[in-house]
Amino acid sequence: MLWIALLVNAAMFVLELGAGMRSGSASLLADAIDFLGDAANYGLSLWVLAMALSWRARAALIKGASMLAFGVFVIGRVAWGAWQGIPPEPFTMGGVGLLALAANLGVAVLLYAYREGDANMRGVWLCTRNDALGNLAVMGAALGVLGTGTAWPDLVVAAIMAGLAISGGWSVVRQARQELAGTAAGAQLQGY
């Protein structure tokens, strides 16, 4: 399942990067970068899947940090877009957002059973959930841009996506740190 998720996310990164650059959409670019981060995270999850909980928790720390970094990057892109004030092309935003939603819903169905697993698998599930919510928001932003003729709906959605990434990243980091503390305490007890 993680291999499928990895391939879907890598393909969507390439598609959304091109569409985001062509349309001038901050929310599509944010979503493209998120797809790239998710593809890397799925690859990392595959690498540590059979390893001990402490290694999976360390991998989850990396995932959480990447989600936090994504959120900070998007906040910077929103500030840049607000300064520029140029509205993106809404039809590309909406069409690509719909395609990205279909891709993420397919991955979410595959990963649903793992949403309450260890920090590593929970991080995979949170990434997918956040992506599907982000895709709905991108499509809403496309309608907002079409209706208002301004960049603000796109920028607001990109800021919300940044908030989701920061919140999800912090949750994964917190759980991974708890798992690492638990494995360290267990190792100390076994040493006596």
UniProtKB/TrEMBL annotation:
Tagged with keyword Transmembrane helix: yes
Localization per Swiss-Prot or TrEMBL: Membrane
The organism of origin for this protein: Acidovorax kalamii
Record's protein name: Cation transporter
Keywords: Membrane, Transmembrane, Transmembrane helix
Topological relation to the membrane, as annotated: Multi-pass membrane protein
Presence of keyword Transmembrane: yes
Residue ranges crossing the lipid bilayer per the database entry: 39-55, 67-86, 92-112, 132-149, 155-173
Gene3D superfamilies: Cation efflux protein transmembrane domain
Top-level taxon of the source organism: Bacteria
A cellular component annotation (GO) from this entry: membrane
